[in-house]
Design goal:
alpha/beta, TIM Barrel, eight-stranded parallel barrel, 8 strands, 16% strand, globular
Length: 243
């Protein structure tokens, strides 16, 4: 799985394996991989991941592990055994937890990409202040991204509005997955900071996560293809592609 190639991640934020499989069938190869998050995983358990992997799909397991190092390491090992290609941990878990997670991943599946969540796209500067984190969202994103990369993570989950700064101030050879992406004309829902697919890729993201605009569309496949076209307009022709 060539994670440095730009791509669309489709979020299967639904409550049944049947509905998830319908979306996968409709979108098909237009997706770089499919995200299984807390909603679907809680409803269906690990079997939904096994089925997607068995069908030849790359799976991004987005459970955002955040616990003591030993517990996170054990969870990451089990995720690796499921065959997932990418997974998330919270960067705010600290250096020991991040290192435990990345070491565990490599011990089972060396090509498993561990991504660190920096700041949720639903949070604003005011929200951070209420949490006792003083300063701007972008500064916290940079701090947590640097911590994650220093402790073995291959990439981060970060808002598109902060990716250009990450590319400038940190090493360039890492994955940036951007959530909170909405095509033009789409409601932001519960996202506080949204961008279009074109804006996200132009800012330096390697992958974008899109859920409801695709999964709730009358024709999910057509919507996914339209987003891919928009991604392509933001990139040089030589870099457009899919793993």
């Amino acid at each position: 799985m060539h994670t440095r190639r730009p791509g669309l991640i489709v979020a299967l934020d639904v409550s049944s394996a049947t509905r998830a499989q319908e979306i996968v069938a409709a979108v098909g190869e237009s997706a770089f991989c499919y995200k299984v998050g807390m909603q679907l995983y809680t409803a269906e358990g690990p079997q939904v991941v096994r089925d997607l992997v068995a069908a030849g799909r790359h799976v991004f397991l987005d459970l955002k592990y955040h616990d003591i190092p030993n517990t996170v390491a054990a969870a990451v090992r089990e995720a690796a055994r499921l065959g997932v290609s990418m997974l998330t941990v919270h960067a705010s878990g600290g250096s020991k937890m991040l290192r435990a997670a990345t070491d565990a991943a490599r011990s089972v599946k060396p090509d498993l990409v561990v991504l660190a969540v920096t700041v949720l796209t639903s949070l604003t500067d005011h929200d951070l202040d209420n949490l006792g984190v003083h300063g701007r969202v972008g500064d916290q994103v940079l701090r947590l991204a640097a911590l994650a990369l220093a402790n073995g993570c291959q990439g981060v989950i970060a808002p598109a509005r902060d990716t250009a700064r990450l590319r400038t101030e940190l090493k360039d050879d890492f994955v940036i997955v951007t959530p909170g992406v909405r095509p033009l004309g789409t409601a932001p829902a519960d996202q506080a900071r949204v961008v279009t697919p074109r804006e996200a890729m132009a800012a330096g993201a390697t992958h974008i996560v899109v859920g409801r605009p695709i999964t709730e569309a009358p024709d999910p496949g057509a919507e996914a293809r339209a987003i891919l076209a928009e991604i392509g307009s933001a990139l040089q022709p030589a870099t457009v592609g899919r793993a």
